[in-house]
Amino acid sequence: MAETLVSSGFRFDKLPENYIRPESERPRLSEIESLKVPLIDLDSSNNRDEFICQIRDACSDFGFFQVTNHGISAESTQKVFEISREFFHLPVEEKMRYYSNDPSQKMRLGTSVNVMKEKVHSWRDYLRFYCHPLEEFVNDWPSTPQSFKNVVSNYSTEVRVLGFKLLGAISESLGLERNYIERVLGGASQHMVMNYYPPCPEPDLTYGLPSHKDLSALTVLLQDHQVAGLQVLKDGEWVAVNPQPNSLVVNIGDQIQALSNGRYKSVLHRAIVNSSKERISVGSFLCPANDAVIAPAKELTSEESPAIYRNFTYDEFCKKFWSRSVEDGHCLELFK
């Protein structure tokens, strides 16, 4: 099984056949332009009405934005990057202790996206693990590198605080009570994914992550400010999101699209790779509790604007999501 990891340390001269995308699906890297992404300052001294307006515009026009003065220290984010890099540089035998193809596992190392369902693999390894309630999951996290649990515990706690602050602002921007989304999520589960994209011999032929939308309510992404790789679909065109120093990328997930009755849409995004540098990103996902019932907010429906989506539990959504390949299209369409 060790050879399934692209972080095995083996350097390929050519891309293996099962990673090569059909010509019509390739990234066309030379054609991609950069996009100026909404940058929102979360400094608490700023005017709140203006802040809520910025959130509304970013969510409705883009589906994502970057935040500064977010309350997570540069030291904390740097430590998360370092510990992620250390983990993926461990000997393959050590990493494989955590390997699993079962998406129901709360802590697992994986590769690509869904190797049991997909036809073409992606140039990525990842470590996915749950982190709330912390005391329930932390003992199952890797004990190597030695400081992994301490570093990641601190960061996951900080990013959860930020996530709820943003969810409150998103609720207000929809004309709902500030705690509306938090209340619907039912305590909100939280998990993180550490993504590792090694140098790729033929980056024009594959992806680190193909086009997809997040099944979460909200995603907070820490990406490498030295090595760009995130692209989003804006107005029918793929554009690059260049990382800004000391910022985090935030994007709307499927659950907020459903709750907002389609006013805010989860955004299609993907990750590309390059031939010379490894890239690391760390995604934090705030999700509903498994038994939380997701439905369009009544305040956002009317005779003129009826509910687009039926009621569903998050557990039902996840089972449908993980039973499919990322190539099967947007899972939320199945809940209309």
From TrEMBL:
Q: What is this protein called?
A: Uncharacterized protein
- Organism of provenance: Persea americana
